[in-house]
Amino acid sequence: GAGVSQSPSNKVTEKGKDVELRCDPISGHTALYWYRQSLGQGLEFLIYFQGNSAPDKSGLPSDRFSAERTGGSVSTLTIQRTQQEDSAVYLCASSLYRGDTEAFFGQGTRLTVV
Amino acid sequence: GNSVTQMEGPVTLSEEAFLTINCTYTATGYPSLFWYVQYPGEGLQLLLKATKADDKGSNKGFEATYRKETTSFHLEKGSVQVSDSAVYFCALYGGNYGGSQGNLIFGKGTKLSVKP
After folding, report:
1. A67, A46 in Cβ contact below 8 A?
2. % of chain B at pLDDT higher than 70
């Protein structure tokens, strides 16, 4: 596609429910990142996929968070048993190779847990 | 681990003023350094980058020099415009050296407002 696509753009969910956020990276990009952007907190790294290597999950805040990347393309970030503190904008980015090439960001998914 | 620290905002300047946004980093090995910008209502986009010591990245009148001796990558612009109002993020890619994280790490962002 023309850019990184994320869906949904907005999601309101009840506390305790599970949510899935989707990211379609730019075709051919081997690196994919998930970040969380909270008001006043900048970009918090969550997880990084690079080609067929094991993902770097070091940023996931709890075991309620998981992500997968199927076929080296589409990625899904899953949050189980959502809490109000999970409310944030979730950003996905992809880059052609590793992180020293330009990362292209999607518009994000704004998650609100009520 | 790797980290990026940038000056807290918000920063408010008048048009044509000189801009500096400070950024320092901690990293193992030889990171690449970036400035990303987020204009109101838009996604993050790369502004400039430098991949080795003493390199200068530049774009749209903005400049930043990779200073290994001071572990800094300060963003500067000689004369800001209203259209430069945005949030600026300093970022680091640490590669895969000696156990450092091979991911793209961002600072907290600095909001710049330029008044006419």
Report:
1. yes
2. 93
**Minimum distance, in Å, between the CA of residue B69 and any CA atom of chain A:** 21
Highest mean pLDDT (candidates B27-31, B47-51, B90-94): B47-51
Cβ-Cβ contacts under 8 Å, B103 against chain A: 33, 45, 48, 56, 59, 99
Contact B89 A48 (CB under 8 A): no
Reported as half-sphere exposure (CB side, CA atoms, 13 A), residue A103 has a value of: 33
Calpha distance A92→B9 (Å, rounded): 25
- Residue A5 near chain B (CB below 8 Å): no
Please classify residue A41 by burial: count the beta carbons closer than 10 Å to its beta carbon, then call 0-12 exposed, 13-18 middle and 19+ buried: exposed
Q: Which two tokens stand for residue B57?
A: 């990245």
Candidates B104, B108, B111: best to mutate against A (most CBs of A within 10 A) is B104
Question: What residues does A51 pair with on adjacent strands?
Answer: none
Confidence bin at A40 (pLDDT 50/70/90): low
What is d(CA B46, CA B40) in angstroms, rounded to the nearest whole number? 15
The residues in B 54-93 lying below 8 A from A, measured between CB atoms, are: 89, 93
Q: In chain A, pLDDT over 70 holds for what percent of residues?
A: 96
Q: What is the pLDDT of residues A50-67, one digit of tens each?
A: 888 889 898 999 999 999
Q: Does the distance separating the beta carbons of B89 and A98 come in below 8 Å? A: no
Q: Which residues of A touch B59 (CB under 8 A)?
A: none
